[in-house]
Amino acid sequence: MQPTHHQPASRHVAVIGAGAGGLVASRELRREGHKVVVFERGDQVGGTWVYTPTVESDPIGLDPNRTRVHSSMYQSLRTNLPREAMGFRDYPFVAIEEDEERDPRRYPGHREVLMYLKDFAIEFGVSEIVRFETEVVFVGLVEGGKWKVKSKSKRGEVVEDEIFDAVVVCNGHHTEPCVAQIPGINTWKGKQFHSHNYRNPEPFRDQVVILIGGAASSADISRELAGVAKEVHIASRSVADEAIGKQPSYDNMWLHSVIKSAHDDGSVAFQDGSVVIADIILHCTGYKYDFPFLETNGIVTVDDNRVGPLYKHVFPPALAPSLSFVGLPWKVVPFPQFELQSKWIAGLLSNRIALPSKEEMMEDIKAFYSLLEASGIPKRYTHNLGDCQFEYNDWLAALCGCPVSEEWRKKMYLEVSKNRHARPETYRDEWEDDHLVLQAHEDFKKYTL
Ligand code: FAD
Question: Which of 159, 263, 324, 361 could lock onto 317 through a cystine, CB 3.0 to 4.6 A?
């Protein structure tokens, strides 16, 4: 793929969302000379890191008319990545020891991440181009390959017909709950919550709770619940047979296989044969991609949580590069990856970088989907990058003409995963990769001195 030799172009670009993705996308777009408007329905930058004690009116998130809350942060949340690895590549997330307001821990609380993102927005002048309390309600194609964006202010005024050359979607994907399907659940009398509406363990005090899920938040929440609930039962798809049963070092926590059925006498049966009479089911079962404002005449769809067809998780070939998505991959280190995706988008929009032809992109996507299918990977895991994330990042970096991921960051990610596995309860405070922390700080001198 060769760079084009066209004149650099400056585009009028709408960025939807001022979370980490929208902030870095805006910075990269502006660095590349584009004119950017950021639409943000909240009243501050930071997206999911803006903690609120408020929860939605339907605690399980099924009622389409429920009151909405964007963030899924819980009160006690500390990051599950160390700050060195988590931060943007050229704006290190370093501890600010001299400021008492800040949380200098290596795995800080959510407020520290929000403060870092706010610092980033100020440092790069992004805050000034955000239209706060302005929700995008419609994005659609108009003649000439441009995009119409309709937005609504908090007071309900709808702004129609703003036309942009390009739209970058950065609306996040931890807001629309995905709920486990349980046979018989409609007759079951207990309460159900989704972790989107979990803030602290108080509502679960003295209750028998079944928590569904085996990912990061379920691990944190189950431990927190064990401190107040009568019993905590974890139902997980990925549990090994030998791990099923009462958990060592807890007197009120059990691990089970998946739930088989729920019954009107309050009982819940698991596939491993165990049965529990429960008060609450807490679904820690993840989220759905959702773009309620986006009208592409069926070109981009969400099917079983696959957003597609997308070339490298960013561009729908038929609409590239004027429509793009930042931040869809999961099981990744998000911020540095958002940064690289954003550089790619910005460079393409200015004609500095070229895309393959639409046909080539479609071929690539088809080959990717076939590979997933042949490997038995379900559609809903399409955007799960996991082990491939650094290969993907380095591919992006090469296209953008910037350095590949730092060796220390790659190694640190592996070390952290191992440490989390070995010390699930204390990994945030005990580690053995100080040599990598030193390397990271050596590297940060490029940006902080
Ligand atoms: P968001 O942060 O969700 O931002 C999207 C923004 O878009 C929001 O501000 C929203 O208000 C706005 N928006 C949405 N729709 C519209 C609309 N129609 N019009 C206008 N504005 C709109 N990552 C880590 O790196 N480390 C961690 O330890 C970590 N822990 C996490 C813990 C939890 C519980 C969750 C949910 C996520 C965690 N993450 C973590 C991942 C986190 O989501 C990403 O780090 C990142 O913050 C996502 O940024 P984003 O910009 O893609 O989305």
Answer: 361
Answer yes or no: pTM beyond 0.90: yes
104-162 pLDDT, tens digit per residue, is 999 999 999 999 999 999 999 999 999 999 999 999 999 999 999 999 998 877 777 89
Query: Would you state the pLDDT for residue 2?
Result: 44
Task: Quote the mean pLDDT of the chain.
Answer: 95
For residue 172, the CA-to-ligand 1 centroid distance in Å is 5
**Atom 29 in ligand 1: residue holding the nearest Cα:** 79
What's the pLDDT band for 209 if we cut at 50, 70, 90? very high
| Separation of CA 18 and ligand 1 centre (Å) | 9
Please report the pLDDT score of residue 155 as a whole number.
81
Ligand 1 atom, smallest distance to 74 CA: 34
SS3 assignment for the chain: CCCCCCCCCCCEEEEECCCHHHHHHHHHHHHCCCEEEEECCCCCCCHHHCCCCCCCCCCCCCCCCCCCCCCCCCCCCECCCCHHHHCECCECCCCCCCCCCCCCCCCCEHHHHHHHHHHHHHHCCCHHHEECCEEEEEEEEEHHHEEEEEEEECCCCEEEEEEECEEEECCCCCCEECCCCCCCHHHCCCEEEEHHHCCCCHHHCCCEEEEECCCHHHHHHHHHHHCCCCEEEEECCCCCHHHCEECCCCCCEEEECCEEEECCCCEEEECCCCEEECCEEEECCCEECCCCCEECCCCCEEECCEEECCECCCECHHHCCCEEECCCCECCCHHHHHHHHHHHHHHHHCCCCCCCCHHHHHHHHHHHHHHHHHCCCCHHHCCECHHHHHHHHHHHHHHHCCCCCCHHHHHHHHHHHHHHHHCCCCCCCCCCCHHHHHHHHHHHHHHHC
Confidence band for 7, pLDDT divided at 50, 70 and 90: low
Atom of ligand 1 nearest to the CA of 117: 47
Residue 73 alpha carbon, nearest atom of ligand 1: 34
Between the CA of 16 and the centroid of ligand 1 the distance, in Å, is: 12
Q: Is 171 in the pocket of ligand 1 (CB under 6 A)?
A: yes
Q: Is 286 in the pocket of ligand 1 (CB under 6 A)?
A: no
Alpha carbon of 257 to ligand 1 centroid (Å): 30
Instruction: State percent of the chain over pLDDT 90.
Output: 91
Give me the mean pLDDT over the 280-293 stretch.
97
For range 4-13, the mean pLDDT: 78
CA of 287 to the centre of ligand 1 (A): 12
CB of 217 closer than 6 A to ligand 1? yes
Given the CA of residue 45, which atom of ligand 1 is nearest to it? 9
Distance 154 CA to ligand 1 centre (A): 20
